Amino acid sequence: MQRTWSLSGPLDWMRYINKYVEVKAGTSEEREHCGWLLTVDPVSASLVLVNFGEVGRASVRVVMGHVVEKVEVLQEGDQEMVDRLQAILIQTQSSDLDPEQLQLRKDTVQLWLQKNLIPVEEEGAELKVAGVLTISAPYRPEDCRSCNQIILDRIQRLIRIKPEY
Amino acid sequence: MATPVPVLRLPKGPDPNSRGFDPKSPRYISLCRTSISSSAVSDADSEELQREQHARSVLRERFLRCLLAMANKKVHFHMFEKVKVEATFGASDIDVLNFQVSDLHTPIGVQKEALIRCQDVISLTFDL
After folding, report:
1. Is A43 near chain B, with CB under 8 Å?
2. Residue B55: inside a domain, yes or no?
3. CA diameter of chain A
4. Is the ipTM reported for this complex over the cut 0.90?
5. Distance from C-alpha of A21 to C-alpha of A6, rounded to nearest angstrom
6. Between 20 and 30 A from A31 (CA), which of A66, A154, B97, B119?
7. CATH architecture of the domain formed by A2-89
8. What is the mean pLDDT of residues A54-79?
């Protein structure tokens, strides 16, 4: 059974996401874990389960993929639950900036990078750095995406020390 | 102050092209043999592959954000042989083989810094 879970692949795992599941895992007496499935790590097949407590609190359990024997859906998630799970990950998504402020932020980041001799181009609402790194709104260090760790680290550092004005 | 990139680099990490792991490296062979194959989809079906890769990236991003949320938090590890330990979570390596933790409360004392082998872990919990 264990094999099946870790080998079933991302498309299969996707079908369990945002649902209330029961996971059978491990050998000890506490081998059943329930929770809302936040994600499955595609590298280790580990599950991330969330259980909501009182207002604003949540407990998270990561079940390692190598011990998982069986996963069963107990309850489907509605849109409210999907939003709630999303909000857990992106606690401080400051999408409350208006378009003008966003444009200003984008321009200052672009200018700052150019000042530091980094090749940067505008691509719609995103900034593209040297063709390998993308900065999306609201252009904070954590909004940088790249598959090159070294470039990512350098650009994030640079944006972090950007003077505010 | 710049915060370090929370990825632990161990000897023989990913190949230099940042594509993940080198399946020929001794580390990969010894530790990852049972690791998940990159794709169950044949190369011919490029649309299916693209969907799979998209699903993979969505799932992985969520997992990485989860690891970020876990950093510097008290985490309870449930391990084999009914071992339960508590520690402050630091980082994980990219292939999720080891966790770096601080102040590991073991039955014989507190270990300031430690690496936990993921194969020994059943599950871990923390509060948000």
Report:
1. yes
2. yes
3. 60
4. no
5. 16
6. B97
7. Roll (2.30)
8. 87
